[in-house]
Design a protein that fits this description.
The chain is built from three helices and nine strands; from the N terminus they run αααβββββββββ. By secondary structure, the chain is of the alpha+beta class. The protein has two domains: 48 residues, no CATH class; 105 residues, Lipocalin. The longest helix is centred in the first third of the chain and has 12 residues.
């Protein structure tokens, strides 16, 4: 690519003897047509130099996620944070399929609860309890944070939002 940039610079320099590169006939054609639009060379060089970066696939939500901690944030009726606390790993993992969440104990794989859900964008809506839902607050190859917030809060009520942190 450095050679291409050098070549364009040399060809745009009127002092450079083009016959060394192109020959006498093509040099005359080049000067008449191509040199009138130096912006074309810049565009051509930019297009050639800027290759497309490979598209990275979206992280996969499905599979096993090991519980790390649950962070709870308490709010007053105006939305001001009152307190925040974290509870470390609860000794379970979450296994997500395309239509269900399965909570299991890490030490013996015993069931801890299973729930059918449907995904709506970044929201997981529990099928049997449509008011129970969580939002995918963060999703990377190694990290998942599910945010559980009340679907509605009565005016003047205090409320809590829980972030469930998982890792692969």
């Amino acid at each position: 690519m450095k050679f291409a940039a050098y070549l364009v610079l040399m060809l745009s320099d009127t002092r450079f003897p083009r016959q060394f590169l192109c020959g006498a006939t093509s040099s005359a054609f080049f000067r008449r047509h191509a040199m009138r639009t130096p912006g074309l060379f810049g565009l051509l060089l930019l297009t050639a130099a800027c290759g497309k970066e490979p598209v990275k696939p979206a992280p996969d939500l499905l599979g096993r996620w090991n519980s790390q901690q649950i962070t709870g944030t308490h709010y007053d009726p105006s939305g001001r944070v009152l307190s925040q606390g974290a509870v470390p790993d609860q000794g379970f993992y979450l296994f997500l399929t395309s239509d269900s969440l399965h909570f299991r104990r890490s030490r013996d794989n015993a069931p801890h609860g299973s729930y059918a859900y449907r995904r709506q964008g970044d929201e997981l809506v529990y099928r049997l309890h449509p008011t129970l839902r969580c939002t995918i607050a963060e999703l990377t190859d190694r990290t998942l944070v599910l945010r559980y917030a009340p679907s509605s809060v009565s005016p003047g009520s205090y409320y809590q939002v829980d972030d469930h942190h998982y890792a692969r």
